[in-house]
Amino acid sequence: MWVFLVRSFDASTIFTIAALGELIGQRSGVLNVGIEGVMLFGATLGFITAQTTGSYLLGFLVGIAVGGLLGLMHGFFSITLGVDQVVSGMGIWILGFGLTAYIGNPFTGPLGMGRIPSVLGLAPFFFLGIVLVVITWFVLTKTSLGLQIRSVGENPSVAEVSGINVSRTRYLCVIVAGMLMGLAGAIYSLDYNPVWNYNFLQGWGFIALALVFFSMWNPLTLLAGSVLFGTLWQFSLNPQLVLPGFLSRYIWRTLPFAITLGALLLMSTRWFRTRWGAAKPEALGQPYEKG
Amino acid sequence: MRIGNYALKLEKRVTLSGWGAALISILAILFALLLFSLLFILADINPLAAYQAIFSYAFANPFGLPLAINRFIFLLLCTSAFIIPFKAGLWNIGMSGQLFAGALSAFAVVVAFGGKKFANPYLSPGLLIPLMLLAAALGGALFGAIAGFLKGRFNVNEIVVTMMLNFITFWLVSFMIKEGGPFMKSGGEGDGFELPSSIFGPLIKGIPFTIFIALGFAGLLYFMFAKTNIGYQIKAYGLSPAAARYAGIRTFMIPLLVFVMGGALAGLAGYHYFAAVPGLYKIPTNYGYFGDLAFYGIICGLISQGNPIAAIPVALLFGGLSVGGRFVQGQLHMSFGVDYALLGVLMITLVAFQFFYRFKIGWVKAGKESLDVGIPG
After folding, report:
1. In whole angstroms, how far apart are CA A53 and each of A46, A59, A69, A113?
2. Contacts of A201 in chain B (CB under 8 A)
3. Complex confidence, ipTM
4. B7 has which bridge partners?
5. Which of A14, A184, A191, B258 has the greatest CB tally within 10 Å of its CB?
6. CB distance from A266 to chain B under 8 Å?
7. What are B84-105's pLDDT values in tens digits?
8. Is the Cβ of B358 closer than 8 Å to some Cβ of chain A?
9. Could you tell me the domains of chain A?
């Protein structure tokens, strides 16, 4: 049972960090539906780097860097070129899905390195995740940079008039967002499940995207949601630990997705929206063109 | 940017003619293929030779051509499934889930009429095959309807919903065909059961009859969007849901309708690959590959700019490219996934080219005061 909990926390960490990146981007008004693609890239290139150089550190750095580059690319498409953010995000997802299947294939199989040491049985990334959540919460709500980010996400023209550089702020946010998603991918492939396989994520990125909606754009709520879904995900992988012999394991695998659907539905009802609807960044998804 | 007396100027396009859009699309495809040459060069392969091998296998080889045509039918159905919601401004990325749902429904009909146990099902093929088609369309439509209903009634983000449904159906198929599932082939290793030969999808000169369904629907959709009231309503909703509501269009019905139609076509794509393509006639253990291929439908839909007729040559080209890519991968000893990589490169190029659909670049003679360069507001 303890093992199960620990694995659940490890899974939550990946959801937390990836979704936190998305949250930062969305707070600045940029939606990136390509989280899964960024994670696949970070995971695959991080995995390849770590395996060929034998250095975990380099693996993580490459994962973060490639995530940042993809964030920059998303920014270039959606901020500078003014391409529909959904189109750009879909592009990044399919690019990640297609290209990593090809690049990573010669490296199919286990990583073959000593495990990363754990702290009190938990992966060190669990603590990193919590620290990142707290930092993000602090920056967004207590600092002038956070105010800048939020104002750019709510009303970019007003922000521009009051002297904030909208494009620069959004670029900063999407790049940081990409780095966090890349890091989350690298944690998956280097620590959580260090085996490379084609299209191994199977929906982590999309659940992270849904988690941002569930969190009402609040990092602390996001952490709670991630722990819930991390546990749920881990349970769906090992239902026999809790309910041995009940239903096929394939049916259990659908559980996190079905619950996501249910939660999305609940969140979209009028009751919820009248209470929470104001939380959504007003300018989310809209390209900003200087007036 | 200024060079001498001339300055580069961006202008927002007010209108874009059909031929203009086609030109940009062709340039995008050529650019993507150029970009993709890098992968061949990195693998020490002459890109020209590789492309020649791809195209000659896909379009001039007695083994490759039928594969390319089968792939084309599949992609055209998936593209149509993407285009219908796309016209309403909605993203159907759930073709993979809808086609699995369609395939499962079609095979459920076969099981219900004894086709799993006996070589001759209770019903004559002339009745059973249409029933399978109907079931496939209904199954796909049902899964599409979930996304459409949630979008129309509760404004739930359709991208997340369709993606969740993709994963749900992916595991449902595993449940049905593996580890003692109801559709498992007896003694099979993770494959679904094979159809009795009497209900294989009919072939016309070696080509599955589903080609007429795919082409017919492409034509129908073109007609629907060009000439009918409902097509007009869908397009109006796509331009602005709020304005459509003021114009008296029922904004709940449109998302539901487009997703039901799209889902039904994706369901037929599922029928096509698993029940009408020679050599398969079952849900194979690597069924996930066919779900991945459905994503080519998004690219075809975007490149053809939502035009169902323009989608025909695009789907043919990509059908050939993906089949040929798989072939050269084996032929030239490349790493697995050439067709996947091509999918990714095409998609991202297309995203970058979206810019040219919206802006045109021209050189203007720069006067002293026209230093205004950049995107005009």
Report:
1. 10, 8, 21, 11
2. none
3. 0.91
4. B2, B364
5. A184
6. no
7. 999 999 999 999 999 999 999 9
8. yes
9. 2-279 (1.10.3470.10)
